[in-house]
Amino acid sequence: MTSVQDKEGVSLEDLKNKMAEFARERDWDQFHSPRNLLLAMVGEVGELSEIFQWKGEVPRGLPDWKDEEKQHLGEELSDVLLYLVRLSDICGVDLGKAALRKLERNAIKYPVKLCKGSSKKHTQINVDNSNVNGDSGSAAADQDT
Predict the structure, then answer these.
(1) In sequence order, which residues have a C-beta less than 8 Å from that of residue 21 and are 6 or more positions away?
(2) What is the pTM of this model?
(3) Residues in contact with 24: Cβ distance below 8 Å, sequence separation at least 6, in sequence order
(4) How large is the angle between the packed helices 95-109 and 67-90, nearest 10 degrees?
(5) With contact defined as beta carbons under 8 Å apart, do 142 and 127 qualify?
(6) Which of 11, 41, 49, 119 is 20 to 30 A (C-alpha) from 79?
Protein backbone atom coordinates (compact mmCIF):
# COMPACT_ATOMS: atom_id res chain seq x y z
CA MET A 1 0.00 0.00 0.00
CA THR A 2 1.51 3.34 -1.02
CA SER A 3 1.71 6.18 1.44
CA VAL A 4 -1.04 8.78 1.33
CA GLN A 5 1.65 11.33 2.14
CA ASP A 6 2.93 10.83 -1.43
CA LYS A 7 -0.20 12.45 -2.90
CA GLU A 8 -1.28 16.05 -2.80
CA GLY A 9 -5.00 15.30 -2.99
CA VAL A 10 -6.98 12.13 -2.44
CA SER A 11 -10.23 11.28 -4.23
CA LEU A 12 -13.14 9.26 -2.89
CA GLU A 13 -12.23 6.64 -5.49
CA ASP A 14 -8.69 6.44 -4.07
CA LEU A 15 -10.06 5.98 -0.56
CA LYS A 16 -12.59 3.38 -1.73
CA ASN A 17 -9.86 1.36 -3.45
CA LYS A 18 -7.47 1.63 -0.50
CA MET A 19 -10.19 0.56 1.95
CA ALA A 20 -11.13 -2.41 -0.26
CA GLU A 21 -7.49 -3.44 -0.49
CA PHE A 22 -7.01 -2.99 3.26
CA ALA A 23 -10.01 -5.22 4.05
CA ARG A 24 -9.11 -7.80 1.41
CA GLU A 25 -5.52 -8.15 2.68
CA ARG A 26 -6.84 -8.89 6.20
CA ASP A 27 -9.74 -11.09 5.06
CA TRP A 28 -12.16 -8.65 6.65
CA ASP A 29 -14.69 -8.55 3.80
CA GLN A 30 -16.60 -11.25 5.67
CA PHE A 31 -17.25 -8.77 8.49
CA HIS A 32 -18.05 -5.75 6.32
CA SER A 33 -21.80 -6.05 6.02
CA PRO A 34 -23.73 -2.78 5.64
CA ARG A 35 -25.10 -3.13 9.19
CA ASN A 36 -21.68 -3.76 10.75
CA LEU A 37 -20.09 -0.88 8.88
CA LEU A 38 -22.91 1.47 9.82
CA LEU A 39 -22.68 0.54 13.51
CA ALA A 40 -18.91 0.95 13.44
CA MET A 41 -19.32 4.38 11.83
CA VAL A 42 -21.87 5.43 14.45
CA GLY A 43 -19.39 4.42 17.14
CA GLU A 44 -16.77 6.61 15.51
CA VAL A 45 -19.24 9.52 15.31
CA GLY A 46 -19.67 9.10 19.07
CA GLU A 47 -15.89 9.33 19.55
CA LEU A 48 -15.84 12.43 17.33
CA SER A 49 -18.65 13.95 19.39
CA GLU A 50 -16.72 13.40 22.60
CA ILE A 51 -13.98 15.70 21.34
CA PHE A 52 -16.44 18.60 21.18
CA GLN A 53 -18.47 17.67 24.25
CA TRP A 54 -18.50 20.39 26.91
CA LYS A 55 -16.48 22.83 24.80
CA GLY A 56 -19.42 25.00 23.78
CA GLU A 57 -19.10 26.76 20.45
CA VAL A 58 -15.59 26.80 19.04
CA PRO A 59 -14.34 29.24 16.40
CA ARG A 60 -13.46 28.13 12.89
CA GLY A 61 -9.93 26.89 12.55
CA LEU A 62 -9.88 25.91 16.24
CA PRO A 63 -7.27 28.58 17.08
CA ASP A 64 -7.15 27.74 20.80
CA TRP A 65 -6.66 24.01 20.29
CA LYS A 66 -3.31 22.30 20.81
CA ASP A 67 -1.71 20.48 17.88
CA GLU A 68 -2.36 17.15 19.62
CA GLU A 69 -6.06 17.96 19.90
CA LYS A 70 -6.27 18.83 16.20
CA GLN A 71 -4.42 15.66 15.29
CA HIS A 72 -6.85 13.59 17.39
CA LEU A 73 -9.75 15.37 15.69
CA GLY A 74 -8.27 14.52 12.30
CA GLU A 75 -7.99 10.86 13.26
CA GLU A 76 -11.61 10.66 14.39
CA LEU A 77 -12.87 12.54 11.32
CA SER A 78 -10.87 10.10 9.20
CA ASP A 79 -12.42 7.11 10.95
CA VAL A 80 -15.90 8.41 10.14
CA LEU A 81 -14.97 9.17 6.53
CA LEU A 82 -13.33 5.79 5.95
CA TYR A 83 -16.31 3.88 7.31
CA LEU A 84 -18.66 6.03 5.22
CA VAL A 85 -16.64 5.40 2.06
CA ARG A 86 -16.48 1.67 2.79
CA LEU A 87 -20.23 1.52 3.54
CA SER A 88 -21.09 3.27 0.30
CA ASP A 89 -18.81 0.88 -1.62
CA ILE A 90 -20.34 -2.22 -0.02
CA CYS A 91 -23.84 -0.85 -0.73
CA GLY A 92 -22.97 -0.08 -4.35
CA VAL A 93 -23.53 3.66 -3.99
CA ASP A 94 -21.24 6.07 -5.83
CA LEU A 95 -20.76 8.47 -2.94
CA GLY A 96 -19.35 11.30 -5.05
CA LYS A 97 -22.27 11.22 -7.49
CA ALA A 98 -24.79 10.85 -4.66
CA ALA A 99 -23.30 13.88 -2.89
CA LEU A 100 -23.46 15.98 -6.06
CA ARG A 101 -27.09 14.95 -6.63
CA LYS A 102 -27.88 15.90 -3.03
CA LEU A 103 -26.26 19.31 -3.49
CA GLU A 104 -28.37 19.87 -6.62
CA ARG A 105 -31.55 18.90 -4.74
CA ASN A 106 -30.61 21.18 -1.83
CA ALA A 107 -30.05 24.07 -4.25
CA ILE A 108 -33.66 23.63 -5.39
CA LYS A 109 -35.01 23.27 -1.84
CA TYR A 110 -32.99 26.25 -0.59
CA PRO A 111 -32.95 28.91 -3.34
CA VAL A 112 -30.51 31.70 -2.53
CA LYS A 113 -33.10 34.47 -2.83
CA LEU A 114 -35.33 32.81 -0.21
CA CYS A 115 -32.85 31.44 2.27
CA LYS A 116 -29.67 33.52 2.18
CA GLY A 117 -28.66 34.22 5.77
CA SER A 118 -31.45 32.06 7.20
CA SER A 119 -31.13 28.81 9.14
CA LYS A 120 -34.79 27.88 8.62
CA LYS A 121 -35.74 24.48 7.22
CA HIS A 122 -36.94 24.46 3.61
CA THR A 123 -40.53 23.78 4.65
CA GLN A 124 -40.56 26.94 6.77
CA ILE A 125 -38.91 29.04 4.06
CA ASN A 126 -41.60 28.06 1.55
CA VAL A 127 -44.39 28.83 4.04
CA ASP A 128 -42.81 32.20 4.89
CA ASN A 129 -42.46 33.01 1.18
CA SER A 130 -46.11 32.22 0.48
CA ASN A 131 -47.11 34.55 3.33
CA VAL A 132 -44.99 37.32 1.82
CA ASN A 133 -46.82 36.88 -1.48
CA GLY A 134 -50.19 37.49 0.14
CA ASP A 135 -51.14 33.88 0.81
CA SER A 136 -52.62 33.42 4.23
CA GLY A 137 -50.64 30.23 4.71
CA SER A 138 -53.80 28.49 5.94
CA ALA A 139 -53.00 25.33 3.98
CA ALA A 140 -49.69 25.07 5.79
CA ALA A 141 -51.39 25.81 9.11
CA ASP A 142 -53.99 23.12 8.42
CA GLN A 143 -51.23 20.56 7.90
CA ASP A 144 -49.77 21.28 11.32
CA THR A 145 -52.96 20.32 13.12
Answers:
(1) 1
(2) 0.79
(3) none
(4) 100
(5) no
(6) 119
